């Protein structure tokens, strides 16, 4: 789904800023896992609600519209408040803001039960909006908080590690969600709205439990108020172009993930039942996890260049093994079982991983160049998924996750470069652009309704063409000022 959002806190923590905060950081990384998990649950939820309410693809795309629309609305409100009277989270404290956001998430999840009882699709959309409100506040608060839990020179490393936990959540969610909705809580093997009540009440309980853990934890405090920022971050072209890139990236990634289950279920691709197809979403989101953690190594300045290839190969192999085991989980006749695919079936995905690692090599550690190469790689994969059939189409579509992996962090970093005192204001504007995730599923759904689900995978191509251009434009800008690495 979209990755860590890097913002800068207005003040330093009053305690423990440079001391040992391993325990506090471990607690905060749970937040990244949970919001990745609950966000990716939408990819399982869309086909479930589509079948339950007999929706068109366009109508089912309203799930993402409600969820990611909240990011825009809440971030916009937050931006105006920050400009007018200072950062509200800095005033109330990051720990309290995180607790509040988790309680809001729990409330949104809890509303799924009455929505199912009322058999109301708009009710579900309202619950999703409330849930996403909590996730938005959580992202605004947790990212800068994670950044200051240790020495400043290692802030990026900490955020990359936390982002890896986010990807772990997005990888597990389709597997757990598919089992819960289509197997464990299905009524007599049939999809009914009652199947959604218990899973989301469980999620509500998990968010409340995490809120309690955060509330009672002795986390370093951030004190002091934040002054309103002067000037306008929109004066910087790298930010303006970067906002468009974030909008297109988040929109494309979310749209692809939203319709992958329906894509895999199509008779010309694999023809799988939706419960089986949902398991394979783990390769899309797990690919993002592989790419992010390998990218952290590829773009690191502290790891010896000759050691990077070995570390990246070992990381990719270990994570692929994790995904392989996770997707073997089945729930049949009331029992959990393991049903492994033949290892040879992973050859196409392994080849894509090798190409992804090679693309890092082509980029030579330069964020703009890597972004450009990855953008064009996804263009090729989307063309293949729309033109080909069977397993070629399957792995081409799933492989897009590998190359989506580093886009958020690279775009975000390139966009806020040289913003100086306008960095936090620019960060708020970039967060707003997550609204692309609300709009693109509707566009892709409309294409699917009118032309077919496979043809719909051509729709995001223009996004990645622009992203590739932005990467190369940004790298030329860095080269021009002598900051290329």
UniProtKB/TrEMBL annotation:
UniProt-listed Pfam families: MFS_1 (PF07690)
UniProt-listed InterPro entries: MFS, MFS_trans_sf, MFS_TsgA-like
Entry keyword Cell membrane: yes
The keyword Cell membrane appears for this protein: yes
Entry's transmembrane regions: 24-49, 61-81, 93-116, 123-142, 200-221, 241-265, 277-298, 310-331, 346-363, 370-388, 394-416, 428-447, 453-473
Gene Ontology cellular-component terms listed: plasma membrane
Record key words, sorted: Cell membrane, Membrane, Transmembrane, Transmembrane helix
Protein location: Cell inner membrane
An annotated Gene Ontology molecular function: transmembrane transporter activity
Membrane topology, record value: Multi-pass membrane protein
Entry protein name: L-fucose-proton symporter
Organism, scientific name: Botrimarina mediterranea
């Amino acid at each position: 789904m979209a990755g860590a959002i890097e913002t800068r806190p207005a003040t330093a923590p009053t305690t423990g800023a440079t001391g040992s905060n391993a325990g506090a950081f471990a607690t905060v990384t749970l937040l990244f896992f949970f919001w990745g998990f609950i966000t990716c649950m939408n990819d399982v939820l869309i086909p479930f609600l589509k079948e339950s309410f007999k929706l068109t693809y366009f109508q089912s795309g309203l799930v993402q519209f409600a969820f990611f629309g909240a990011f825009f609305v809440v971030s916009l409100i937050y931006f105006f408040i920050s400009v007018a009277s200072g950062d509200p989270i800095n005033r109330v404290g990051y720990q309290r803001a995180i607790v509040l956001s988790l309680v809001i998430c729990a409330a949104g999840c809890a509303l799924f039960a009455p929505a199912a009882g009322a058999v109301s699709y708009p009710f579900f959309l309202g619950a999703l909006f409330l849930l996403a409100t909590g996730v938005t506040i959580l992202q605004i608060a947790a990212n800068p908080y994670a950044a200051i839990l240790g020495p400043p020179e290692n802030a990026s490393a900490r955020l990359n590690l936390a982002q890896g936990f986010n990807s772990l959540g997005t990888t597990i969610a389709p597997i757990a969600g598919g089992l819960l909705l289509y197997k464990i809580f299905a009524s007599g093997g049939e999809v009914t709205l009652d199947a959604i009540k218990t899973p989301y009440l469980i999620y509500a309980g998990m968010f409340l439990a995490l809120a309690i853990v955060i509330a009672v934890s002795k986390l370093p405090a951030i004190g002091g108020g934040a002054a309103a920022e002067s000037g306008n971050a929109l004066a910087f072209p790298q930010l303006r172009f970067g906002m468009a890139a974030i909008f297109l990236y988040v929109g494309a990634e979310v749209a692809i993930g939203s319709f992958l289950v329906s894509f895999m279920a199509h008779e010309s691709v694999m023809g799988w039942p939706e419960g089986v197809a949902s398991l394979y979403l783990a390769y899309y989101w797990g690919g993002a996890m592989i790419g992010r953690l390998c990218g952290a190594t590829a773009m690191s300045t502290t790891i010896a260049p000759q050691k990077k290839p070995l570390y990246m190969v070992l990381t990719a192999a270990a994570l692929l093994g994790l995904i392989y085991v996770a997707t073997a989980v089945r729930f049949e006749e009331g029992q959990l079982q393991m049903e492994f695919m033949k290892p040879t079936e992973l050859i196409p995905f392994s080849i894509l991983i090798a190409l992804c690692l090679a693309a890092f090599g082509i980029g030579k550690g330069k964020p703009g160049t890597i972004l450009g190469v990855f953008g064009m790689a996804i263009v090729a994969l989307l063309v293949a998924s729309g033109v080909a059939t069977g397993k070629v189409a399957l792995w081409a579509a799933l492989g897009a996750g590998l190359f989506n992996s580093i886009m958020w962090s690279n775009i975000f970093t390139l966009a806020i470069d040289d913003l100086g005192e306008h960095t936090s204001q620019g960060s708020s504007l970039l967060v707003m652009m997550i609204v692309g995730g609300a709009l693109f599923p509707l566009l892709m759904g409309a294409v699917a309704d009118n032309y077919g689900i496979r043809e719909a995978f051509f729709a995001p191509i223009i996004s990645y063409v622009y992203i590739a251009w932005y990467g190369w434009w940004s790298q030329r800008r860095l080269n021009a000022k002598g900051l290329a690495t």
